[in-house]
Write a structure and sequence with these properties.
Blueprint: E1 4-10, E2 14-20, E3 26-33, H1 37-40, H2 43-57, E4 65-72, E5 75-77, E6 82-84, H3 97-105, E7 109-113, H4 114-125, E8 134-139, E9 143-149, E10 152-153, H5 185-188, H6 190-201, H7 209-215, H8 222-230, H9 234-258, E11 262-266, H10 274-287, H11 290-295, E12 297-300, H12 306-314
Parallel strand pairs: 1-4, 4-7, 8-11, 11-12
Antiparallel strand pairs: 1-2, 2-3, 5-6, 8-9, 9-10
């Protein structure tokens, strides 16, 4: 029997699992709640328990697997297999995750950052079409990313390659959680889009339901702004256009540096679909070097929640 791989995507709320073929096809998948209580001390034991339980259900053992790939938030030491600073998991000290899982499952483990493994998933089995040069940008609560260049996932000297959310798009802009001003994350994350809308509303004088909601102190969400724009609310269109300007600027600079075959946009904010993609592409073409604009495509992610487990699984290959 051909050996399988296990992909695990560890998130602050849910941990997703999948058993895949070596070609990246998902055969089984499941999830458990991520238990962050007691400084996250139960997270790894419950992952081990879940893996071993499933293997028992399917009458499989460690000899049936090439390895386990794990995508995690926080700073990862890939060689040591440890994680530190994963604050949404309540992990503040170094966690010897690789050692623990290997000891209890008898399966070899490979670990990388969650944004990197999502990039690998989209590059391998998603919108990246298995091309060796793909950049992935994920728009959610924050803005993350991953870079695959000439077939290799880039990590950089300090493991910070792919920190696309901290590309500066407005030097005089909003202050970022990193301490600098004008990072992409401040204007294109879910919270950043709402903050940008509040800022722009001060000078907008036209008719707009979104503007009325903001002026009345009603709760406004990124999703609501996107829907209002697609319904041709003039102020919402202006906000989305400004977000796409910043995204197009960042993507243009990234592409001028790396010239990937595609820049794939994923995450919750990207749910606006072609409405967002086409506008980002317009600005991208303004800022990209002509040959780069012709050869690098702006695409939307297609794997959704499966990107993490597929990409994690690919680590063991």
């Amino acid at each position: 029997m051909e050996k399988k791989i296990i992909g695990i995507d560890l998130g602050g709320t849910t941990t997703k699992f999948a058993i895949l073929t070596s070609d990246g096809e998902i055969q089984q998948k499941w999830s458990i709640d991520t238990n962050v209580l007691n400084e996250g001390s139960r997270i790894v034991p419950e992952i081990i328990e879940s893996v071993n339980h499933r293997l028992g259900l399917y009458d499989m053992d460690s000899s049936d697997f090439i390895g386990i790939g794990l995508g995690v938030p926080g700073k990862v030491d890939r060689e040591a297999g440890t994680i530190v600073g994963a604050y949404n998991l309540n992990w503040r000290t170094v966690q010897p995750v690789k050692e623990q899982i290997e000891r209890e499952t008898k399966i070899q483990v490979a670990i990388d950052n969650d944004a990197n493994v999502a990039a690998l998933g989209e590059q391998w089995k998603g919108a990246g079409d298995n091309d060796p040069n793909v950049v992935f940008v994920t728009l959610g609560t924050g803005v993350g990313g991953g870079i695959i260049s000439e077939g290799k996932l880039l990590h950089g000297t300090a493991g910070c390659a792919g920190e696309i959310g901290h590309v500066i798009v407005d030097p005089d802009g909003f202050e970022c959680t990193c301490g600098r001003k004008g990072c992409l994350e401040t204007v294109s994350s879910a919270t950043g889009v709402v903050r940008l809308a509040r800022h722009l509303s001060e000078k907008f004088a036209g008719s707009s339901e979104l503007k009325v909601q903001l002026d009345n102190g009603e709760e406004v969400t990124c999703k609501g702004i996107s829907e209002a724009a697609q319904n041709e609310d003039k102020f919402a269109v202006m906000v989305v256009d400004r977000v796409c300007f910043y995204l197009g600027l960042a993507c243009g600079n990234i592409a001028n540096t790396l010239n990937p075959s595609s820049i794939v946009i994923g995450g919750g904010v990207s749910a606006s679909g072609q409405f967002l993609r086409s506008r980002v592409e317009t600005y991208f073409n303004t800022f990209a070097f002509p040959e780069v604009a012709q050869s690098t495509k702006i695409k939307l992610a297609v794997l959704g929640n499966d990107a993490g487990v597929i990409g994690a699984g690919s680590l063991v290959l």
